[in-house]
Amino acid sequence: MRWQDIDQQVCAIARTLSIVGDRWTLLIVRDAFLGTRRFADFQRQLDISRHRLADRLEKLVTAGVMERRPYQERPVRHAYHLTQMGIELYPVMLSLARWGNDWLDDGSGPPVEYVHRACGKIMQAELHCSECEAPLNPHDVIPIIGPGLRTALARRGGTGEAENRLPPTLREELLAERRKDLQGG
Amino acid sequence: MRWQDIDQQVCAIARTLSIVGDRWTLLIVRDAFLGTRRFADFQRQLDISRHRLADRLEKLVTAGVMERRPYQERPVRHAYHLTQMGIELYPVMLSLARWGNDWLDDGSGPPVEYVHRACGKIMQAELHCSECEAPLNPHDVIPIIGPGLRTALARRGGTGEAENRLPPTLREELLAERRKDLQGG
DNA sequence: ATCATTACGTTCCATAATGGAACTAACCTA
DNA sequence: TAGGTTAGTTCCATTATGGAACGTAATGAT
To answer: Does pTM top 0.70 for this prediction?
Structure first.
């Protein structure tokens, strides 16, 4: 499978990466979160080639993650702003940042820290369960087949082709294992 | 700047992406979370070229995200397991999955859902503040300069070179803005 | 003993993505 | 009129990737 076809997979992670999984793309989003808006500023701060930057911004705009807003006429100049879709990538960004701080520190501490405006403290981003609010432990999160995958399963006939586009979650033995986990645990 | 040099940036996100920001890498990690361990299984499920897969697994092992464990002698066969470092990528994976579910649904619902073993309910991963436990809103998280960046700033002489490796967070006007946010809000 | 199969790679090469520098376009300032 | 600013585009050499074939070390079938 070619990378450009991964959005064909029936998998939310693959679909997400088909948009933001390219080189530079998440760094552009990072800078957008930090306030960068203009082409030249992205280019200077990332030290990316103008070529690549134009290409990535175009893709982000097409995907709906960013939007071009004119900030002056004569000549028309556009700024790139995160849309709501883009802003909602912040859990991804905070999670990436936290992992980098936890595992790739060169000994001098976090380059950037985050203050929670509500409580005023320097914080870490923690995952919690939306239902019981408890902090999440990786071993307590059990993936199960969802409606999107069920639909895809029902659709696949003998084509064999579609089967290749399903994520490994599909595998019967794994699903059985998960169900046992759920019942037994 | 070349992509291979982004780990030189004094930025946790850039450092993280220097390890997991390559094509395929996060999909390999995804499959590892779902229980895939062997070379041939990764290859089949991802439909990636053997070449690329060998390369990515090697990089993940070198970085410490995965480890090779022999599962049989004669001939020696290795399985690839997530290390603790790899397991702690789960907030990244869950955040990517949630964004894909929220924004890239084709109308048939989430391909995969997650059950929280502790409360038994289908859940969403939510970011909370580690200090006050409240759910995080993107506008309530204020990035400020941290010790790692302060050190890097102190180190840079007139080299100019090092300056290019600092993230845009460095920019004085932006930091001033953040400080105002903190005091005024 | 010979042949097929499994598992895990590596090699080779055509194609696609990237980086760097130069070029264009539309305006502004001195 | 010369040079500066901003946002791109074009061109081309260098890298990365995908696909298929090949290599190796074993097991199992005939």
So the answer is: yes
Considering CB atoms only, which of A15, A92, A147 is closest to B109? A147
Contacts of B64 (CB under 8 A, 6+ apart): A103, B83, B85
Closest residue by Cα to residue B185 from B151, B140, B133: B140
Confidence class of residue B162 from pLDDT cuts 50, 70 and 90? very low
| Residues of chain A found within 8 Å of residue B13, distances taken between Cβ atoms | 26-27, 30, 93, 96-97, 100
pLDDT digits (tens, 9 = 90+) for A59-118: 999 999 999 999 888 788 899 999 999 999 999 999 999 999 999 999 999 999 999 999
Q: What are phi and psi of B107, to 5 degrees?
A: 105, -10
Taking the CA atoms of chain A, what radius of gyration do you get in angstroms? 21
Per-residue pLDDT tens digits for A176-185: 555 454 444 3
Whether the CB-CB separation of A71 and A78 falls below 8 Å is answered with yes
Q: Provide the CA A157 to C1' C6 distance, Å, integer.
A: 29
